[in-house]
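Q: I'm building a small set of examples for a reading group on sequence design. Run inverse folding on the following structure and report the sequence directly after it, with nothing in between.
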């Protein structure tokens, strides 16, 4: 039984654009995490602060701010609960990696989601 139904127009790897249940929830979560906070028209609180912290040193304060922000985003969606949030940095690739362990509430299924923020990509996005 499908509980949630939606559409995804990002990436061609999905074939058709229909998403259901946990795949839809993950896409909704990634949409907000990958959106820079304050850039969504008429929704200044939508999005993540990770893009603003990308060029800062990843000290304990920054890691805690990213974790708190992920918790804020996940708590807005009643379909998910966060079990764990690991924030790491790959200095060689100039990347921040946010790994989330989640519970999909309707079926009590545990799942993981990894969001990668690359400094080089963000610079190209800002310039383009």
């Amino acid at each position: 039984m499908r509980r949630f139904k939606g559409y995804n127009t990002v990436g061609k790897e999905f074939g058709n654009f229909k998403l259901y249940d946990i795949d839809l929830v993950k896409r909704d979560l990634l949409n907000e995490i990958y959106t820079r906070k304050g850039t969504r028209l008429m929704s200044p609180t939508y999005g993540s602060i990770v893009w603003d912290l990308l060029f800062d040193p990843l000290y304990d304060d920054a890691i805690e701010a990213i974790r708190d922000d992920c918790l804020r985003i996940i708590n807005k969606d009643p379909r998910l609960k966060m079990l764990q949030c690991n924030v790491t940095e790959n200095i060689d690739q100039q990347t921040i990696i946010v790994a989330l362990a989640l519970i999909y509430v309707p079926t009590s299924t545990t799942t993981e989601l990894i969001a990668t923020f690359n400094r080089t990509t963000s610079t190209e996005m800002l310039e383009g």
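The first helix runs from residue 21 to 33.
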